[in-house]
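Task: sequence design from structure.
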């Protein structure tokens, strides 16, 4: 039981850490793109959303010309502000064909020869800034997880006491459906969710939700504009069923998208290889 508790806590912590890492990188790259444009005298052009290609690879498109020599320092400062200390590779790509034009490795910042390709001027055009981080390696230590064993032993003892008290109770012939308790009406964009009635109002239309649809939408609105991994969504919404089907997320997201189609301020976006994010403007 202690092992299962430890494994579950580590999995949840890993999912949360991954989401937080994606959010911090998103903000750091947007800050970098903004400052690159400002350094080039452009303070009005919009910045496209950061794309996450996988768990460690991020890309932001810059439609205007920027000074490549300013990039290493601005990016490193942005990552430091958001406390991102992983190693990384940087590539500047042509938007049209994704050809690498310029690039460097984070270790080049401390070399005498400086960053490769520095001093080279970019031609006017559209470029994508791609940052590939090294996968994070974690080593479990006894000092960091010492509390798992006493807590696990305590829970095991409590479980035994509960079992002793309930083993002689008559067996239930039918399991009652799980009731999701939520007493608040949540407004997001031009939509609202009432979990007590399992009712979604989006634009001028009302939709009666199933229990799973309501629980999934509630998870989204409680994490607006945050990337949620598929595993995290499955565990949060479907784990109490005992059997988790990966396609369930895609099917239910498709249903919610149709219900929210009238609200132009709300969008459920897929993050390739990671999961989904509810975007509310």
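Answer:
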């Amino acid at each position: 039981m202690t092992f299962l508790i430890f494994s579950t806590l580590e999995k949840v912590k890993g999912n949360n850490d991954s989401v937080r890492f994606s959010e911090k990188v998103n903000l750091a790259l947007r800050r970098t793109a903004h400052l690159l444009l400002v350094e080039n005298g452009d303070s009005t052009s919009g910045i496209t959303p950061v794309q996450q290609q996988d768990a460690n690879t991020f890309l932001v498109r810059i439609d205007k010309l920027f000074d490549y020599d300013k990039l290493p320092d601005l990016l490193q400062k942005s990552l430091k502000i958001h406390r991102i200390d992983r190693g990384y590779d940087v590539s500047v790509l042509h938007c049209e064909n994704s050809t690498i034009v310029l690039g460097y490795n984070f270790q080049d910042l401390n070399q005498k020869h400086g960053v490769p390709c520095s001093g080279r001027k970019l031609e006017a055009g559209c470029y994508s800034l791609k940052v590939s981080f090294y996968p994070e390696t974690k080593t479990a230590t006894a000092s960091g997880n010492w509390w798992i064993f006493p807590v696990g032993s305590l829970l095991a003892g409590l479980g035994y006491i509960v079992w002793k008290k309930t083993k002689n109770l008559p067996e239930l012939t039918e399991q009652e459906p799980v009731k999701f308790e939520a007493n608040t009406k949540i407004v997001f964009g031009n939509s609202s969710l009432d979990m007590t009635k399992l009712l979604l109002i989006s634009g001028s239309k009302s939709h009666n939700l199933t229990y799973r649809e309501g629980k999934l939408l509630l998870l989204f609105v409680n994490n607006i504009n945050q990337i949620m991994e598929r595993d995290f969504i499955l565990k949060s919404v479907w784990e109490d069923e005992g059997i988790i089907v990966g396609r369930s997320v895609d099917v239910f997201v498709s249903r919610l998208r149709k219900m929210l189609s009238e609200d132009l301020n709300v969008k459920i976006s897929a993050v390739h290889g990671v999961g989904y994010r509810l975007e509310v403007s």
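The first strand starts at residue 51 and ends at 54.
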